Amino acid sequence: MVANPVYTYLLADLATNRILEEIRLTNVSFNKPLNDCGTFNGTWKLGAKTAHLDPYDLSMPCRRVIYAFRDDRPMWGGIVWTRKYDSATQTVALGAAEWWSYFDHRKVLPLIPGSPDLTTVAGLSVTYTNADQNNIARGLVALAQTHTGGNILVVPADTELSNIPRDRTYNGWDLTDVGHALENLSNVIDGPDLVFDVAPGTAAPRRVLRVGTPWLGQQGSAWRWEMGGNVASYTWPSDGTRMATRAFATGQGVELGMPISVSEDTSKYADGFPLLELEKQYGSAEDEDTLDGHAEADQQTARMPVALPTIVVRGDVSPTAAEVNRGDDGWLVLPPDPFHRAGFEGPVRIVDMGFKPGADAERVDLTLAPLLDGVA
């Protein structure tokens, strides 16, 4: 019988990455999404013998980091953003988020000159011309970390290129969040997959940015999940609230000067679907090709009601929780059941991984990429 993996949790200093203390946590849950920010929650029971250092200082939001290890492998890392101490139970509820969350608190700006006046910041800009989209992502993260106090020691995991050039301009007057700029870059047609992650290091895990070329994961892999085998259960939620047959992408401007791109799929009307519209703003996008790409991507993403399947798999059975990663491809087999009368079998891709370490057999929630629902 395979032994259940052991999870351990370390608190570290954000600025220096120095490990401060190993702590015992209960009620732990954390996730690792693709192109988004993962979160972590856990409960720390205090007591005279549970901490060698000051718990108040150890858990300080915005200064401390949590690392989660599965056996000797770092699985998750992020910044402590919230804590709540309960004197009745002597517990601290900790909330953390991956490194992406830090860049949600940063603006796309070059270094700001000393003693700026009221027009200085608005006049600044960051421009990428015919730049590989992977280098734009890395450049945005690197630029944010050149500001005084802004270096949280995130480094690129590699230097691979996608060979997809992009033009991007981020104007000072927009005060675009770095996290939002990364999200927009990943969401355009053929945009790169992006994840902030942890990797093995010497004294502490390394903090890394992984960029796809343009996709991350083990595409075309042999991962196979089958209900009744390594799949314990599944859910199949369907959502039509975000379907759109016509998408508008708006850029920088006001009134008659606002550029608006439109992408529409009229073929759905003959199938009985109504005209459904959505609109998204892309303030830093000015040129027609960029806005067209956003509109097309938004419409394609929302072109049908989608199923958002989640499967609960055994983390100790191949492929194990240590082998699978966000972005990986696989093959899902669901035998006929009361909901899927004919069963389901087809390719899937992992877009989120949810962990709830405990004493029982390890279970991992795998959220799969949206599937077109009701389409043969």
From TrEMBL:
Q: What is this protein called?
A: Minor tail protein
What organism is listed for this UniProt entry? Amycolatopsis plumensis
